[in-house]
Amino acid sequence: PGQPGGRMDLEIRRPNTFRAGPFDMAAGKLGLDLSMHQQSCSVYVKQVFDTGLVDKHNRNHHERMVRSGDFIIEVNGERGSAEVLAKMLGASGAWSGTIELTVSRPHEVGGFGGLC
C-alpha cells in the first residue's frame, strides 16, 4: 500500500459491447460452450465450436466475432440473471425463429466484462 496522502491513478474502461446475429435457429445450433455464476447477470463463453452458427457468423463478421472470454449479456434484447440467460440459450435449440446476442468483451489488459 502507498503512503497516506499519496497519489493514485485510476483508469476506468467500459467493456466493448456488440450484437451478434440474428441466428436462424432452424439452420442448426449456436455451437457455444457456456459457463455461468448464479449471482451474475451474464453468461461466459468458454469456447466457440467450429461447427455451429456462431462460427459461421464469425467467418463473415470479423468486426463482431464472438470468442472465448466474451460474456453474453442479452438474448433477443432481454437482460436477466445468468440463470435466466442460460435457460433462454438452452431453449434456443427448440426455437424455430431467430436469436440475437448482445456480447460484452473486457479490454485485453484485464478486468471483467459482462457487468449488470
Which radius of gyration do the C-alpha atoms yield?
A: 16 Å
| Main beta sheet | 5 strands, antiparallel
Our estimate of the beta-strand percent is 25-35%
Give me the count of strands: 5
- How do the SSEs run, as a string of H and E? EEEHEHE
Mean pLDDT: 85
Low-confidence stretches: 110-115
Query: How does the overall form come out from the CA principal axes?
Result: elongated
Distance between the termini: 30 Å
Annotation field: number of helices:
2
Structural class: alpha+beta
Helix content: 10-25%
Task: Describe the strand arrangement of the main beta sheet, using strand numbers.
Answer: 1-5-4-3-2
Outline of this structure?
This protein has 116 residues and is an alpha+beta fold.
